[in-house]
Amino acid sequence: MGRRKLKIQRLEDMKARQAKYSKRKKGILKKAKELSILCDVEIVLLLSSPSGKPTLFVGQNPK
C-alpha cells in the first residue's frame, strides 16, 4: 500500500491558500537552515506570499 500521486493544482480559496503557504513556508525555511548548517553554505530564499508580501531568508553558517 503505497501513497497515491496527487495532482497539484491551485487552491481557489484564498484563506486555504494562505494557510497552506504559511505551513509550507515554515517547513522550507527549516530545511534551508539545516542545509546551511550541514553543508556550510550560505542560502538566500526570497518568497512571495499569495497576498504579495515578500519574505527574505538569509542562512549564514556561524563560524
From TrEMBL:
Compartments reported by the entry: Nucleus
Chain segments annotated as coiled-coil in the UniProt record: none
CDD domains xrefs: MADS
InterPro entries xrefs: MADS-box/MEF2_TF, TF_MADSbox, TF_MADSbox_sf
Keywords assigned by UniProt, alphabetized: DNA-binding, Nucleus, Transcription, Transcription regulation
One GO term describing the cellular component: nucleus
Annotated ranges, domain MADS-box: 1-61
GO molecular function, one term: DNA binding
Gene3D superfamilies assigned to the protein according to its UniProt record, in alphabetical order: Transcription factor, MADS-box
Chief location: nucleus
Entry protein name: Agamous-like MADS-box protein AGL65
Originating organism: Gossypium hirsutum
Gene name in the database record: LOC107899928
